[in-house]
Amino acid sequence: MFSISGAVIFGVIATMTILVAFGLPLGEFTMGGQHKILPKKFRVMAVISVAIQIFAMIIILQAGGFIPCACLLNLLNIFVSSLQLTYL
User: Fold this and answer.
1) CB under 8 Å, gap of 24 or more: what pairs does 52-56 form?
2) Integer Cα distance of 12 and 20 in angstroms
3) Is residue 87 a contact partner of residue 55, using CB atoms and an 8 Å limit?
4) Per residue in 28-40, pLDDT tens?
5) 5-63 confidence digits (pLDDT tens)
6) Residue 81 exposed, middle or buried by CB count within 10 Å (0-12, 13-18, 19+)
7) Which DSSP string do the residues of 41-71 spell out, in sequence order?
8) Rounded CA separation 27/33 (Å)
9) Residue 62 in contact with residue 72, Cβ under 8 Å?
10) Is 33:27 a contact under the CB 8 Å cutoff?
11) Which of 14, 18, 76, 83 has its CA at a distance of 20 to 30 angstroms from the CA of residue 44?
12) pTM score
């Protein structure tokens, strides 16, 4: 039950971070509140943050037994492969 609560909280934060990355004026609630609309380089940081938050949601759900471990390894392999393709 706690793993679902943790994943939902991460999901809400990830949703808000996605909205900020798309340029909605919610920047005052994230990253220290210095900018109402985040500059381009901070938007890139927001996208990276969303990727980390999604990975954390997967880890939490896996620890709670809602996602099998083999599925987590496959997702991790896909994530690492996509990063490798990005930097080629």
Assistant:
1) 53/10, 53/13, 53/14, 53/17, 54/10, 54/14, 55/79, 56/10
2) 13
3) no
4) 887 778 888 888 8
5) 988 998 999 999 899 989 889 888 877 788 888 888 888 888 888 888 988 888 888 88
6) exposed
7) HHHHHHHHHHHHHHHHHHHHHHHTTSS-HHH
8) 6
9) yes
10) yes
11) 76
12) 0.70
Tokens 């759900």 correspond to what residue? 61
> Cα separation of 48 and 28, whole Å?
19
57 within 8 A of 7, measured Cβ to Cβ: yes
Are 22 and 14 in contact by the 8 Å Cβ rule? The answer is: no
Is 42 in contact with 35 (CB distance < 8 Å)?
yes
Dihedral sign (CA 37, 33, 13, 41): positive
Residue 1, amino acid: M
Report which DSSP code applies to 29: G
For residue 48, give both structure tokens: 């990276």
